[in-house]
Every structure is written in structure tokens, then in C-alpha cells.
Amino acid sequence: MAQADLLDADHISAFDCDVIRNAFRTWVLEENIPEDRWRGSAAQMIRDFTGFPDVDPKVLDWIVRK
């Protein structure tokens, strides 16, 4: 799904959530991001990817879950 399609959607697809989660995990490992910054970093990544100002807390919990 293209980013333009996401902006018209009411939610993030499961596929896009998986892409964001994998990108986040890779980024955390490569940049050695401390765990206390994971939620804020993941929330910003979701906002950047989707263009949505609000982040669903359940999606955020799933993305940062170990």
C-alpha cells in the first residue's frame, strides 16, 4: 500500500504495522537506541510513516514489545 493510500485510510493495515515494526527493530539494533526511548521513537516513526498525528496505543505497544 502506498503512503498516499494510508493517508486516506482510517487505520494502518496489518502489513504496514509489520513493516513499521521490522523497521523499528532494525533501527533500534543498528543505532543502539536505549529502551527508555523506544516508545517515543516508535511513535514518531509511526507518525512519519502514516502522516497521522495520533498513534493508536495498542499499535505502539505491539511495535515496542520485545
Which features would summarize this protein structure in a list?
single chain, 66 residues, mainly alpha, 0% strand, disordered N terminus
Itemize the secondary structure elements and their pairings.
Elements: H1 3-8, H2 14-31, H3 38-50, H4 57-64
Give a written overview of the molecule:
By secondary structure, this protein is an all-alpha fold. The chain contains 4 helices and no strands. It has helices spanning 3-8, 14-31, 38-50, 57-64. Helix 2 crosses helix 3 (38-50) and helix 2 (14-31) packs across helix 4.
The radius of gyration computed from the alpha-carbon positions, rounded to a whole number of angstroms, is 11 Å
Number of discrete helical segments: 4
Helix content: 55-70%
CA(first)-CA(last) distance: 26 Å
Kindly state the number of beta strands.
0
H/E series: HHHH
- Beta-strand fraction estimate: under 5%
Q: What would you call the shape? A: globular
pLDDT averaged residue by residue: 85
- How many structural units, i.e. domains? 1
Oligomer status: single chain
